[in-house]
Amino acid sequence: MGLLSDFGTPGSLIRLLLSLPAILWAISFHEFCHGWVAYKLGDRTAAYEGRLSLNPLAHFDPIGALMLLFVGFGWAKPVPINSRHFKNPRRDIALVSIAGAGGNFLTAAACGIVARIAPFAMGGTFGLFMIILLYVNVGLGVFNLIPIPPLDGSKILAIMLPPSMMRGYFFLEQYGMIIILVLVFTKVLPMIMNPIVYNVARFLARPLVYY
Fold first, then answer.
1. Which residues are designated catalytic?
2. For 142-156, what is each residue's pLDDT tens digit?
3. What is the rounded distance in angstroms from the CA atom of residue 136 to the CA atom of residue 24?
4. Other C-beta atoms within 10 Å of 201: how many?
5. Which entry of 71, 95, 127, 211 is 20 to 30 Å from 158 by CA?
6. What phi and psi, each to the nearest 5 degrees, are found at residue 36?
7. Integer CA distances (angstroms), 207 to 73, 112, 131, 134, 204, in order
């Protein structure tokens, strides 16, 4: 499902140019949502470090962005969170973790709303951009909910696990990034994720999926 999986074909340059703003928005809004929810829950760490921003440069991770471009899912530079500032750490960590993917799914749903109220505009370059924006955001949101550290889903998993299973979690935390890369490059993760991304995209923005 990589946006440039057919790189070198006549339309790939247009998709590249349209993919860049879509990726920059997706990663910026994703991390902004983490920081904004943390701020509302009492943690101002992201604001103090200049990360409560929609500026893509504040959140840009080159490897994660390239993964989004060529594989269809990736990551941004994590927003710093200090759970000591939360009144209810277990609940608030879960809310902050979900917020990033929530922002991406909100963007995807907005793409569907645009397609419904302005179907006449869905042809040509604008329609292609909306489709790319849809899949970039759904891909980023779904990928980050995978319960493998350091992804957001792992933080939700950690607060749900009984103490007896935390040792296994700490093992995952140590080798999580290696596990993710192995799953990506052996094509196991794309094989699992592609149908999930497609169905989430169809649910959130059904009109666009059929263009």
1. 31
2. 999 999 998 999 989
3. 10
4. 24
5. 71
6. -65, -45
7. 22, 6, 10, 11, 9
Distance CA 95, CA 92 (A): 5
Q: Provide the residue count of the chain.
A: 211
The reply to whether omega before 163 is within 30° of 0 (cis) is no
Task: Judge whether 64 and 76 are in contact, CB under 8 Å.
Answer: yes
Q: What token pair was written down for 137?
A: 């955001």
Report pTM: 0.88
Positive or negative, the CA dihedral 129, 133, 139, 142 is: negative
Region 9-31: mean pLDDT is 86
pLDDT (tens digit per residue) in 41-72:
999 999 999 999 999 989 988 888 887 777 76
Annotate the chain with DSSP letters as a single string. Answer: --TTTTTTSTTHHHHHHHHHHHHHHHHHHHHHHHHHHHHHTT--HHHHTT-SS--GGGT--HHHHHHHHHTS----PPPP--GGG-SSHHHHHHHHHHHHHHHHHHHHHHHHHHHHH-GGG-SHHHHHHHHHHHHHHHHHHHHHTSSSTTSHHHHHHHHHS-GGGHHHHHHHHHHHHHHHHHHHHTTHHHHHHHHHHHHHHHHH-HHHHT-
Contact 164/155 with Cβ under 8 angstroms? no
